[in-house]
Specification:
By secondary structure, the protein is mainly alpha-helical. It has three helices and no strands. It is rod-shaped and about 55 Å long.
Length: 71
């Protein structure tokens, strides 16, 4: 294996790992945005790229009931 191939292989592995963790991080970010006041599922979907169904599930998994907005 060449040095170039080693470098590319390591980069591919890093990207694979990032890709695997991205959905979890997006769901966490959506919950944090909700807690910070962005309590509109459509807007959260636009910002995160997650579907409304996914957002409802993600918020509920994190102890947020999206049908009850407010403090």
């Amino acid at each position: 294996m060449t040095e170039e191939r080693d470098t590319l292989t390591r980069r591919a592995e890093q990207l694979r790992d990032q890709l695997a963790s991205a959905p979890i991080e997006l769901r966490d970010t959506a919950a944090n945005l909700w807690r910070d006041g962005l309590q509109n599922v459509r807007e959260l979907g636009r910002v995160t790229g997650l579907s409304r169904t996914t957002l409802y599930a993600a918020l509920r998994e994190r102890g947020i009931e999206p049908t009850q907005r407010g403090d």
